[in-house]
Design goal:
Layout (H helix, E strand, L loop, with lengths): L5 E8 L3 H12 L4 E4 L6 H6 L1 H15 L3 H6 L12 H24 L4 E4 L4 E4 L2 E4 L2 E10 L4 E2 L15 H4 L8 E5 L3 H12 L3 E6 L9 H14 L1 E4 L1 E9 L2 E8 L6 E5 L1 E4 L3 E2 L33 E3 L10 H20 L16 E4 L5 E5 L2 H7 L3 E7 L4 H6 L6 E7 L5 E7 L3 H13 L4 H5 L10 H16 L6 H4 L2
Parallel strand pairs: 1-2, 1-6, 2-3, 6-16, 8-9, 8-14, 9-10
Antiparallel strand pairs: 4-5, 5-6, 7-15, 11-12, 12-13, 17-18, 18-21, 19-20, 20-21
The structure holds flavin-adenine dinucleotide and nicotinamide-adenine-dinucleotide.
Flavin-adenine dinucleotide binds next to helix 1, helix 2, helix 3 and helix 9.
InterPro entries: Class-I_Pyr_Nuc-Dis_Oxidored, FAD/NAD-bd_sf, FAD/NAD-binding_dom, FAD/NAD-linked_Rdtase_dimer_sf, Pyr_nuc-diS_OxRdtase, Pyr_nucl-diS_OxRdtase_dimer, Pyr_OxRdtase_I_AS
Keywords: Disulfide bond, FAD, Flavoprotein, NAD, Nucleotide-binding, Oxidoreductase, Redox-active center
Cofactor: FAD
């Protein structure tokens, strides 16, 4: 018989979304709650993810706008080459994120309504967790342990001082030269930042960039990105050598047997993420994981063990902070709040991810929501794709003089429901939001075109893509409601 030191209504493992989105509302609703966190409060997003990366990327974008080509376009000359004080920026980033994390932890420590265990948790039974020398029990347990960098089995790599995003976001000094491995979100965002602040980077991409993106956007991203960053695309990595402080990565280009290599001072490995579920000792519970170690959950975030839930990255569905947040909000509405009222969980409406958006904060920037063109083709849904280029708008063209950028909007041919939208170009992570609102409400083309768009804001591009979809519907002889024809 296991001795139980303390019992709770709600316990979350992981102080990212688990803390802010579940444990905090739980104790605010009067439930007995505990948080277990082995590292810093705030999880990946605050300490080594979204926040520090954007704190580096934004100044990089300011600097990129000062590149001679950009300035000449707007008839500006700069007498001296702009430089970035990396040490000052690094210090600002580190102090800000560490301060926010420390404050969050301090406020939890000072709060008598919640217990904090600063250890690595592991299960010792379905509702039992070992936290240091104590065993605690939770009626409801939320696994919110996120993901960690995944390292490929590449001969010669293990034991070398390569960087992952964790180290890149804490760099004390910029390397002069660097090799990046990977073509996903992390590789493209952080390599963009490093290249812009002056690191001579070569990026090695196995097959394609940002593979989950709508194909057309992916192609334009590749065209623009590879003009900005030196990339080798389409290859098989062979091995890594670390000698005299230098990394050499050997690879064969696709279709060739000949081994080639690239050498640099630093190596950045950005080849995906993996869930840290092995240490959780899930074998002592009924919680099952899939082949990659992600916790299996249903559409109510229930694991295969009653009363145990998984949210965020570890559930392997959507690996975004805004997704983890929504998972937490859903659990509070459907399980935590009813529990605080002495009621059973409400498993009536599954979580709705159909309007899950994303953005890639690289150069170029991309954003999307809903179905891709290839999804609609595969699903046999009749649609038209309304498209517009940035330069075909007053702001994107005449004012900003954009040489790239697209907005594409996918509309159901019969119902005119907006099914997806994909963008590439300046500020598209902001522009996408009007379409998120429409898709979220299963809105139609007339909902977009009926809105008055501010002239000549960049958002007119979204409307113009909608107009293009309308014209395509009309060209196919599809009868349109009167209010659509002149918008
Ligand atoms: C470089 C980078 C940039 C990113 N940029 C963005 C972005 O711009 N926008 C976006 O939406 N997403 C971004 N992401 C992804 C985002 O960070 C994650 O989707 C999000 O943080 C997941 O939240 P989570 O709560 O599921 O897990 P996490 O935030 O990872 O939190 C999990 C916590 O659990 C703790 N933990 C793990 N195992 C245990 C254990 N056994 N016991 C106790 N504690 C444990 C960890 O220490 C961690 O603090 C980025 C990620 C990276 C790496
Ligand atoms: N802006 C954002 O929202 C944002 C930013 C960063 C990260 N994230 C999240 O973090 C997750 C992880 O990002 P990521 O970039 O690590 O993963 P990813 O899955 O986006 O990209 C991984 C890349 O590594 C490559 N790769 C994998 N194994 C390889 C191997 N053995 N050899 C060569 N290349 C290999 C893949 O082909 C791919 O290009 C993303 O899925 C995303 O959801 C989001």
């Amino acid at each position: 018989m296991v001795h139980i030191d303390k019992e709770y209504d709600v316990i979350a493992i992981g102080a990212g979304a688990g803390m802010v989105k579940v444990v905090r509302p739980a104790f605010q609703l009067g439930l007995k709650a505990a948080i277990i966190e082995k590292g810093r409060f705030g999880g990946t997003c605050l300490n080594r993810g979204c926040i520090p990366s954007k704190m580096y990327i934004h100044p990089s974008s300011v600097l990129r706008h000062m590149l001679p080509d950009e300035l000449e376009k707007h008839f500006i000359t700069l007498k001296e080459k702009p430089t970035i004080d990396f040490e000052a920026l690094r210090s600002y980033v580190t102090t800000t994120i560490d301060g926010t994390s420390d404050n969050a932890e301090r406020s939890i420590k000072a709060n008598p309504k919640v217990d904090e265990y600063q250890v690595e948790a592991k299960f010792v039974g379905d509702h039992l967790l070992q936290v240091g020398d104590k065993v605690i029990k939770g009626k409801m347990i939320i696994i919110a342990v996120g993901t960690v960098p995944q390292i490929p089995k590449l001969p010669g790599l293990e034991g070398t001082p390569y960087y992952t995003s964790n180290e890149i976001l804490r760099l004390e000094k910029l390397p002069k030269t660097m090799i990046t491995i990977g073509g996903g979100y992390i590789a493209c965002e952080l390599t963009y930042f490093l290249k812009t602040v002056g690191v001579d980077v070569t990026q090695l991409v196995r097959s394609v960039f940002i593979r989950a993106e709508d194909e057309e956007i992916q192609q334009e991203f590749t065209d623009v990105y590879t003009k900005y960053v030196n990339c080798k695309v389409g290859l098989t990595l062979k091995r890594v050598e670390h000698k005299d402080g230098m990394f050499t990565v050997y690879y064969t280009p696709t279709g060739s047997e000949e081994e080639v290599s690239v050498t640099a001072e630093a190596l950045f490995v950005a080849t995906g993420v993996t869930p840290p579920t092995k240490v959780l000792n899930l074998e002592s519970t009924g919680v099952e994981v899939d082949q990659r170690g992600f916790v299996k959950t249903d559409e109510f975030m229930r694991t295969t063990a009653p009363g145990i839930y998984a949210i965020g990255d570890v559930a392997g569905k959507w690996l975004f902070r805004h997704a983890a947040n929504r998972d937490g909000e859903y659990l509070v509405e459907h399980v935590v709040y009813p529990m605080s009222q002495g009621q059973e969980p409400k498993f009536d409406t599954p979580i709705d991810y159909h309007a899950m958006p994303h953005a890639i904060f690289s150069f170029p920037e991309c954003a999307g929501v809903g179905k891709r063109e290839s999804d609609l083709v595969k699903e046999g849904i009749p649609f038209v794709a309304g498209k517009v280029k940035y330069h075909n708008s007053a702001m994107g063209g005449e004012a900003m003089r954009s040489d790239h950028g697209t907005v594409k909007i996918l509309v159901h041919k019969e119902t005119r429901e907006i099914l997806g939208c994909h963008m590439l170009g300046e500020e598209c992570s902001i522009m996408i939001h009007e379409v998120i609102a429409i898709i979220n409400r299963h809105g139609k083309l007339e909902d977009l075109l009926g809105m008055i768009h501010i002239h000549p804001a960049l958002s007119e591009l979204v409307r113009n893509a909608g107009r293009n979809a309308r014209d395509k519907l009309a060209a196919e002889g599809i009868e349109l409601p009167l209010n659509l024809r002149w918008c």
